[in-house]
Amino acid sequence: MAKKRRSKLVQPTRTTKGSNYHIHPLLLGSPITAFPSEKNIFYAVGNVLFGLYKYSHDPSDFMQALLSYELALSSAFFELALDRQRWKAFPVTQTVLGSHLVRDGQWQEGLRLLENSLRQLSQEGDPLVYANALFQTARAHEILSDWEKARLYYRDALRLYEHLKYLLGVTQSRAGLGSVLVSEGHLKKGIAELQKAYEGYCSLQQSTKADEVNNICQAAQRALEKQPAEVYT
Q: How many angstroms separate the CA atoms of 116 and 133, rounded?
């Protein structure tokens, strides 16, 4: 059986100046080089990769598209030349921009974009893209310490990722859900989710993430030992 093709348009490197990623020469020879800034190049690459995902249905293409959009938003040019209307044109980029704005403290506009992207994506029929929007919305509510909404969105994302059998999404959702449950004081259930997330990150060979989750899990375990029982059911 032939190996499943994986996109190599954006790949990690240790030599690229100003970024940990470089753009594939095929893309640098395309019309996207007409854009004046690094921000616009990464945005255009994200669009190319997302279009590739719509054709290939390969989750790695989708994750690389998200990475390119994140690189565009983290560019030094972002605050100087942000064309928000362009970012608001598509649900997937609304999700990325909304998450960025919440992290940047502009939570009202960020949540509005996330909720709008959820409404549109729920009708478009791509479950992986919708699951990512649910996950990002959960993270946004977690940042704002809205534990109840964060817990609900993480559970929705987890169910959809499990249906898709997408281990990275399942693991990230379990880690977020476990952290929220611990923050709410539901230690036993939180620890159970965190332990599963730890196992998932180990399977994915993401040792840094596994260590982060394990640290939270150990702290929750120590807190649990100091209380006699847990009320949450």
A: 10
The CA-CA-CA angle for residues 180, 73, 200, to 5°, reads 40
Mind listing the pLDDT tens digit for each residue in 100-151?
A: 888 888 888 889 889 999 998 888 778 999 999 999 999 999 999 999 999 9
Q: How far is C-alpha 212 from the geometric centre of its chain's CA atoms?
A: 17
Nearest-angstrom CA–CA distance, 98 and 83: 14
Are 95 and 132 contacting, i.e. CB atoms less than 8 angstroms apart?
yes
Encoding tokens for residue 143? 């940042």
**What whole-number distance in Å separates Cα of residue 201 and Cα of residue 172?**
9
Which tokens sit at 191?
A: 């620890």
Q: Which phi and psi angles does 130 have, rounded to 5°?
A: -65, -40
Cβ partners under 8 Å of residue 59, min gap 6: 53, 128, 166, 168
